[in-house]
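Purpose: get a first structural picture of the assembly so the mutagenesis plan has something to point at.
Setup: two entries, given in the order below. No constraints added.
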Amino acid sequence: MQTSFINIENIRNDFPILKRKVHKDKPLVYLDNAATTQKPIQVIDAISNYYLTYNSNIHRAVHELAEEATLAYEATRDKVAKFINAKNREEIIFVRGTTEAINLVAYAWGRQNVNKDDIIVTTEYEHHSNIVPWQLLAKEKGAKLEYIGVDDDGDLILDHLDKYLQTGKVKIVTFSQMSNVLGTITNSEEIVNRCKKYGVRVLIDGAQSVPHLKVDLQKLDCDFFAFSAHKMLGPTGVGILWARKELLQEMVPFNGGGDMIREVHKYETTWNDLPYKFEAGTPNIADVIGFAAAIDYLDRIGMDKVREHEMELTKYALDKLSQMKGIILYGPKDITKRGGVISFNLGDIHPHDLATIIDEDGIAIRSGHHCAQVLMERLDVSATSRASFYIYNTKEEIDVFVKSLNRAKELFRI
Amino acid sequence: MSSADIYREIILDYYRNPRNYGKIQDPDISQRDSNPLCGDELEMHINIKDDKVADVKFTGKGCAISQASASMLTELIMGKDFEYVKKLTKDDILDNLGLHDLGPARIKCALLSLKVLKSGLYSYIVDKLKDTTSADQIKEQASGLY
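Result (structure tokens, whole complex):
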């Protein structure tokens, strides 16, 4: 039941959902972790404990419940800052998710800093959430959106970046630290270094990387960083935008309302200090508190262990899958360059048909374009199937998965 | 329904060897749609002559269910009276495919072809026949499909 790195049995016991059966009597094999992960009981308890014992709004009330809730909410901010090695707690902004974080930057920073004929650079392996906000900004401002291409190994072609940087017109380069389809781990530090030489801002989408790799913002040295709680054992509806303090200070607010103000008069308002300037309205208090329990959980295991476990599973799965006749595997072959995400196509079985078939065996995978239609176009496919692993997955589950793929081949007579 | 019931020989055959696959030059009806959830695409071309479907072709990308459904629908309506085609229902399509009790995620695959057909008929009836009463009926049928 275990890889050499973590005690899976203990971990699996913390996830009540892993005990359930699907399609009557099939044990759940959950391999859709790049979409969202399951939640350990510690996270579920933290949320329910808040509602059961100290539910209250935060920051302004003076009663005991409010004080407890405020302390718990703000404690999460400290944990997040430490987890990604951010210098200042006030650089951590709670948002709804990675998507909102990127939209916040595109709106609040982008509108002030991107002008006509400027260039915004993204990559061909971005999630739609790191493309569409920039398209909106580019259209509004008359700016251009350009793409760093992806080579046949699933790596970014950094020569493309140089070409754009040399125009002197690039304002921001935005990319994901790990592709949600190919699993490619981006050479982020190299990109940041090249951008710094030209004084170009960098946003990194950490939605797929923070849950699976040790992320150190001091090493990365980017300007904006975004990720989501629900892909790392936490609840849905919580995301983090980290940005350099001096940038956040210059940026206009994204949402206006309560909590983000210092003083409101009939026609003028002054903003609250960071991070509250960007947290208008009652935030998602319960889920932010639940997120702290998720970070504690990952800290206890250790992100190095998480990574080693996933590498071992990925290697095991790739070895088995690559032996299957008719399979096409996407992404880097070098295990050290990829995360625990495997996209593939099997013969002429459409991914939706494949996902339907193996679902009957209790296996949850993703099928479709994975919100990455630009990449699908690059790969010249309309869809792929995707299996993605996390700390509670086992080699035995991969065996079940491979067996089920063989059943699909039989059904499709290939 | 189980995969073995869904992916019968006939569905796979229509998926791999789609009948009436292709395009018509200057068709009377040309309609395209996609399923935003999964990206399945379908384009249908139809020629109407003497109140009958004189020719129908489709092109598309997608799963076995969506593509077999489209191909089998073209066979179902080829040569049929326009009135018959207008009245086709969701159950007619599912009967034709032999697929019942598809889950909510996959029934959309089976019905994309009917949605494309109904939308195409709607435009044809409004733009060419100027028959707003029939058009409204069709629009209502089409909106209930997803």
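The domain at 45-299 of chain A is CATH 3.40.640.10 (Aspartate Aminotransferase; domain 2).
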